[in-house]
Amino acid sequence: MFSPYFIVEKNTRKDVSTVEDPFDSPTYNIPEKPVTFTEGASYSIIILAGLGVAAAAAYAVFKELIFEPKEYKIFNKALKRIQDDSQVRVRIGSPITGYGQESRNRAARQRIPNRIFTDEDGVEHVQINFYIRGPHGAGKVSAEMFKDKVDKQWKYTYLIVETMQPSRSQLILESYMPAPVAA
């Protein structure tokens, strides 16, 4: 007498070749090559755009960290000249610090307002404006420098310090007038 509840199947082993690999299931929908030329081209455009964005970001970081921009070179030279000037130290005290803009925002204080241009003779000029502060007062600085064609050095066109505190005054620390060209 056989009871239907006690039937045991004799072939319970699975064949090794029919067992599915669990790592194949996530990738079974990926085609081996793009279906159409358009699809392949769109993948290439997306990849190239991503590489372009990454290259632009890398260039911007490299330029900021490795190469000092012209306006910061001019700012550092002008600030050093101001810190060494006895007239300015008497008016606003020492040490003298310089910063870009009157703001509580740190990024705005680090940004130096500037204008870079080339004149009709092909000489490059950089104009900057920034603020200075000492223990006894504060002021505003306007400076312009040009890159001399002969010795390739930056030279002042003008460097003007306008103190606002404790009393208002204006100091012209540098002033350059080129020699007239003989005709």
From TrEMBL:
Q: InterPro entries of this UniProt entry? A: Tim21, Tim21_IMS_sf
- Which regions span the lipid bilayer? 41-62
Q: Which UniProt keywords apply?
A: Membrane, Mitochondrion, Mitochondrion inner membrane, Protein transport, Transit peptide, Translocation, Transmembrane, Transmembrane helix, Transport
Keyword Transmembrane helix attached? yes
Where's it found, cell-wise? Mitochondrion inner membrane
Q: Which GO terms describe its biological process?
A: protein import into mitochondrial matrix
- Mode of membrane association: Single-pass membrane protein
* Principal cellular location given in the protein's record: mitochondrion
Gene Ontology cellular component terms for the protein in this record: TIM23 mitochondrial import inner membrane translocase complex
Explain the purpose of this protein: Essential component of the TIM23 complex, a complex that mediates the translocation of transit peptide-containing proteins across the mitochondrial inner membrane.
Q: How does it assemble?
A: Component of the TIM23 complex.
Q: Which family does it belong to?
A: Belongs to the TIM21 family.
* Name the UniProt record assigns to this protein: Mitochondrial import inner membrane translocase subunit Tim21
**Organism whose genome encodes this protein:** Salix purpurea (Purple osier willow)
